[in-house]
Specification:
alpha+beta; 6 helices; two-stranded antiparallel ribbon; Ku70, Chain: A, Domain 2; about 260 residues; about 30% strand; extended
Length: about 260
């Protein structure tokens, strides 16, 4: 059984069911250490004061927040501890919303909600009711001393908890594209129709298993080869930037032909 990161109750109205929160995603990311090239020993990071040009002992370090350039407010650990929220004993759904209206940009992490063996009936009831209504529950609760905004949604016969970003954490498109927005471009009907044809030609089912983390696979293969004493030749990678097509319609039509030939 996967390790539960939180245990408590899930409630909607006066109905409460004991659940465990279990991570739904296992991210196997490679971790490299920095080593001294001469003796291959791990490098240690030092806490360094540039003003005094010396290493600072851990006990002399305080926590500060920069309020203005080079001006800091010192915050004590006890002060932060005093305002941390207490662990929630329950996830209380206080609102139900149309599941299709939840913008994916808000999603952070996903967890399974695993019911206690005594709560299988109310668990199944909530799953079926949410599926029939195409709704999702919204709630806040505290996990790992942090308050999370979450949705409760279904995935097959299971309930899932998705942690969300708060509204003020979401950057609007004009922030990311401020140098080129508003986009002003005249599209012809033929260009738009051809783009739709390309989308149709590349249409398929949502199947994440069809994609692999090729970098991780190749990195693990490289590590294994070097661990066995093999010498790996370095092949220069051409530094090429994708070109913007001068004739957009021609590029679309060529893309459709390529997609059809690959079927």
């Amino acid at each position: 059984m996967p390790h539960a990161v939180w245990t408590g109750g899930l409630s909607f109205g006066l109905v409460n069911l004991p659940v465990r929160v279990v991570s739904a995603v296992s991210q196997d990311r490679l971790s490299f250490r920095q080593l001294h090239e001469d003796d291959k020993q791990p490098i240690k990071q030092k806490r360094w004061c540039p003003k005094h040009d010396e290493e600072v002992p851990y006990e002399d370090i305080v926590r500060g927040y920069e309020v203005r350039p080079d001006e800091y407010v010192i915050i004590e650990d006890e002060e932060l501890e005093n305002i941390k929220p207490e662990r929630s004993k329950a996830i209380e759904i206080d609102r139900f919303v149309d599941a299709s209206t939840i913008d994916p940009i808000f999603h952070n992490k996903s967890y399974y909600l695993v019911p206690d063996e005594t709560a299988t009936k109310p668990y199944k009831l909530l799953v079926q009711a949410l599926q029939d209504a195409n709704m999702a529950g919204m709630a806040t609760f505290v996990m790992r001393r942090r308050e999370h905004l979450v949705t409760i949604q279904t995935r097959g016969p299971s309930l899932m908890l998705h942690t969300l970003a708060y509204a003020d954490e979401i950057r609007t498109p004009d922030w990311a594209l401020q140098d080129i927005l508003p986009i002003e471009a005249d599209l012809t009907d033929q260009e738009l129709d051809t783009a739709k044809q390309l989308i149709q030609a590349l249409q398929g089912d949502f199947d994440p298993s069809a994609y692999k983390d090729t970098y991780r696979e190749e990195a693990l293969k490289l590590i294994q080869q070097k661990a066995e004493g093999e010498t790996i030749p370095i092949t220069p990678t051409p530094d090429e930037e994708p070109e913007t097509p001068e004739d957009l319609l021609q590029a679309l039509q060529a893309s459709i032909e390529t997609a059809q030939n690959n079927d």
